[in-house]
Write a structure and sequence with these properties.
Layout: E1 2-3, E2 6-8, H1 19-25, H2 27-30, H3 42-62, E3 69-72, H4 75-90, E4 98-102, H5 107-119, E5 123-127, H6 137-143, E6 148-154, H7 166-176, E7 179-183, E8 202-206, E9 217-221, H8 249-261, H9 265-286, E10 292-294, E11 306-311, H10 316-323, E12 327-328, H11 344-348, H12 353-357, E13 359-363, H13 370-387
């Protein structure tokens, strides 16, 4: 996909707003613009129905009910809500004081967990991963016990595309009575999620990671758990008193439409098409004059659009700078870009600081074409020859 003559291979940072989503949103900016919490007139009722329909669509994506979906400003808020809300809500109801997170979590999960450890008397422990980025279930089984309140594990990794074995992890958590939260921001474009709500207690989603609008997300909270959650945003008591604030009607509608696009046969076909292009991209890169190494799991066992590639004896920042403005990719999570330190995800799977600093995440999406792949490889090869 080209944006302003740039080949865009950074879909795990953000996806472009799908035209079908935009068309669905447009009337709610100027025509059906009522406040969904205005309960005394027809425009408010129409807006409220649009919110309800959007929640139903998000719920259907993951196999939940609409009243189990709480809209947020994005996955970062949803992740914070999951950890802080559960811990603060359960602090007087349970003696469990341990929280387990994996070594490859998004920074917002790690930061929220650290805040709980520093200010709320919880002990946070890190579950290790293997060289593919998968949670070591043997270690999890050893670490978990009846004093663990919550486990928070990223479903699909945002840097190396690892897909966790949630069914098995869920069983380990349930056997000990621990709650399971998953950061699912990258999951809708990676796999079918129709039954995931049966396996988790909380799940975070982000609209702009699945061809919806920026500034919009959701947290699935299992119905039975909702009475034990402490809000982190207070106000008018919207969304069952769990997350106050006037909902952004067009953004909610957009997330609902994006959720529809990410389910069903069309979405499955799109994922397989992206997987094929991604595999071709990696194959073509391996045929250049420069040595590369794929970081993380095998291609068939990761997000279909993800290729985290180590360019041996290069510096990723030199490559990325030289690629501008012709090709967009990244050295890791967009939420930590600019931080002068090696990726904690790559270090967790065993890479040295030098190897991590030589790695670039390329992420293909629905609009990526075969021509994009061919041109991208040619541009990368040219840059490598110039900066070597």
């Amino acid at each position: 996909m080209k944006i302003y003559d740039t080949i865009y291979l950074d879909h795990q940072a953000t996806t472009p707003l799908d035209q079908r989503v935009l068309r669905k949103m447009e009337p709610f900016w100027r025509e059906t613009f009522g406040n969904p919490h205005s309960a005394e007139h027809s425009m408010g009722w129409a807006a409220d129905k649009a919110i309800a329909d959007a929640k139903s669509s998000v719920a259907a994506l993951i196999g939940a009910d609409a009243d189990e979906v709480i809209f947020t400003s994005g996955a970062t808020e949803a992740n914070n809500f999951a950890l802080l809300g559960v811990a603060r809500g359960m602090v007087t109801k349970s003696d469990r004081r341990r929280i387990l997170v994996s070594a490859v979590e998004h920074k917002c999960v790690l930061a929220a967990a650290q805040a709980l450890e520093e200010h709320n008397s919880f002990k946070v422990e890190i579950v290790p991963v293997d060289q593919q980025g998968k949670i070591r279930q043997d270690e999890l089984a050893k670490m978990i016990s009846n004093d663990v309140l919550l486990c928070s594990f990223i479903f699909v990794n945002n840097e190396i595309g690892t897909i966790q074995e949630i069914s098995e992890i869920s069983q380990i958590c349930r056997d000990s009575g621990a709650l399971l939260h998953c950061d699912g921001a990258q999951a809708p474009t990676a796999m079918d999620l129709a039954h995931v709500a049966d396996q988790v207690d909380l799940l975070s989603l982000s609209a702009h990671k699945m061809y919806g609008p920026m500034g919009m997300g959701a947290l699935y909270i299992r119905r039975e758990l909702q009475s034990s959650i402490e809000p982190i945003i207070y106000g008018g008591g919207q969304q069952s008193n769990l997350r106050s604030g006037t909902l952004p009607l067009p953004l909610c509608v957009g997330m609902g439409e994006a959720a529809k696009l990410c389910s069903g046969d069309d979405a499955a076909n799109a994922r397989e098409r992206v997987r094929s292009l991604r595999n071709h991209f990696v194959e073509r890169l391996s045929q250049t004059d420069w040595a590369i190494q794929l970081n993380g799991p095998d291609l068939d066992d990761r997000h279909p659009g993800n290729a985290n590639v180590q360019f041996i004896d290069f510096d990723a920042q030199d490559i990325l700078a030289a690629l501008q403005p012709r090709l967009a990719a990244s050295s890791g999570s967009a939420c930590t870009s600019g931080i002068p330190e090696p990726s904690h995800v790559l270090r967790a799977i065993g890479l040295t600081a030098e190897q991590a600093d030589a790695s670039i995440r390329f992420s293909l999406g629905w609009q990526t074409t075969e021509a994009d792949v061919e041109n991208a490889v040619e541009i990368i090869a040219q840059v490598l020859a110039r900066v070597h």
